[in-house]
Design goal:
mainly alpha; 42 helices
Length: 757
Amino acid sequence: ENYHELCRLLARLKANYQLSELVQADCYREWISMVATFTIDSFKHWQWAANSVYYLLSLWSRLVASMPYLKGDVPSQLDSYVPQVITAFIHSRMELVRALQQQGGEPGGGPDDPLDNEEQLTEQLDTLPSLCRFQLQQASSYVLSLFEPCAKLYSQLLSLPTERARDADVAARLSQCEGELAWLVYIIGTVLGSHLTPSSNSEAQQLVDAELTCIVLQLLSLLDAPANVQLRREVRSNQHLELALLFFMQQFRKVYVGDQATAVSKIYAVLQERLNLSDHLAVLAVLMNKIIANLKRRSDCLDITEKTLTLLADLAGGYSSGKLLLKLESVHLVLANHTSAEFPFLDVAANSRLRTTFYCTLCKLLFSDDQAGPFKAFMKPFTELMTQLREQSSPEQFSSPQVCVALVGALRDLRGIVAACSSRRTYTLFFEWIYPAFTPVFQRAAMTYYAMPEVTTPLLKLYAELVYNKAQRLTFDSSSPNGILLFRDASAIVVAYGSRILDHQLPAGADPYAQRLKGICLCMVLLTRALSGNYVNFGVFALYGDRALSDCLEVIIKLCLSLPTEQILSYTKVCKAYFTLMELLMRNHTATLVELDTPVLQHICSSLQAGLKSHEVAISSQCAAALEHLAAFHFAAATDDRDSSVKAALAAHLSREPELFSSQLAVLLNMIVFEDCANQWSLSRPLLALILSNPSYFASWKASIVQQQAASPERQQKLTAAFERLMADVQNSLEAKNRDRFTQNLTVFRHDAKSLF
């Protein structure tokens, strides 16, 4: 414990003193020598220093980072000590691999493997780049001296006959080689990705990067040989090496794949000479072949599949790299053959969530082509599958396990495709494919599988994405009914699912969030996106007697009423979705809410009051906005001389529940006067409308607060003056200028009240 605290103290030392101050100290030379010795000894005895490595590396990294700002002739001594520290650290990682290999995976007593702990690994790697680049030539020479013999031995062991390679001794040596190579590849990748652009390091450093890149890329063909994959893919050390290679490729992509890299980087000259890779396209072909090999041959390893798809998504998402990928024949082969027959990982249950990422990435590439032909060819497997699902005539056939698995896969895949639709053209292509041909299948699925979250979750997520008007992609022609048709279809899904889940009793011991709340939350997200998309004129439904909107709102409100306020506030996602929907309904559909039964409206208002007190500022502000819309609607109705059904409904609510609005006013006043609130402006917006609508309650509350200060007449007088200033020059209207004046007065009033209380 003392040792660990000493390491923390050393790390904090540089945070409190500049290097220029440290080198001026009389004993600096002796101190830096002792710290270097202490660090190197710590790395040698790494089994006692596992949790302290980060602090020691952090100290040296900060010292090196200060070198450019060091002025004067006093030597820092870092030139001689940093290479020793780097060498000791890398050597300690090799020793750790050997110790773990000797332990043989036996539980208890042994050291933890940082390669199995991404957070710990990242901590140790983050401090390395500045250290290695400080003396890059020496660091790279040491890495190469370890890498080349290890890679050579690894190649020799893999070339042995399969029976010999399965021998326990050979397998142990293979695992050790893989562990050592994994660490070295991680270190190389970290150093490579430590600068933002190729021009941010010198030509000499680019040549070193090229040497390091060559030795790593030479490993790829060895690892991806079918026989070697079959032999080693289930071994954890092999998976560590694969993850390290993916990390390296991600770092290489960030720095050396892009428009500027070819023009200024010297790395491709070395790659051309050593590996015959002359430019971006050639290297991208290598990366793409590795991606395809991982997805085809390593489908049973979730970590590798996930990181591989992330790399593919990042390559496809870059403007220049995405354009370059489309020049590769291998990419066009993937776009033409993308089903589980070619990519077995799609059939692995653990990878089901990754299907969405895979198809989203492929469609980003596909949609770069302006022609409709490639899209139709790409969708052919889905057309065949959805046609088969549509033709399952009997309920028994449609509810069979085979249909369920196929349906879930299709829902996840289609969500990825629609998520990639970022323009009007691409969205219209997808919408015309799915509607009206296959949407009845989804409505039937909502009615059949409503009690199975493994089906309803991807179904509702698909529709939440389908109705989402991001980047204004849902822009239909003025004569097109597609916006209305889309909402009617989405409404049918919500009604089919919501009306059934309301009556469904959860089995004993079931997780309420997974079995019920998540689906309700997705319904709220879906409706919020549909109502806020600005592609439907909702007045059309009432005008022509279409109940799509009213049925959907009725079901959603019933779902909301089925959730206790405490339960809503307990789950972050449910809480956010609920209050976002309520704010939207209060803003655009206030009349519909006002016409609800009094207990229902009272429940909604109570939940908004509870949300006002939330520690999440965003939630509290949304609740304040929702109350502002309701209070403004009430004020407008009260000051309108004309009779209307809405005005009558409000009067009926207040006769049954006189404190409907005054209770909200009380909560807001108490929060603003007596509590510290970070969103004062948001809370002030509903306050004016509530004060103007409830003048008698505000007067009684004001009198009560003043009366509480009866023991101090001076304080009473000051408080009365503060209340007068609050309403000074405030008119009986909700015009913008009047609101702003009240908000300014409220700021002054709050300051005065704070000083008094």
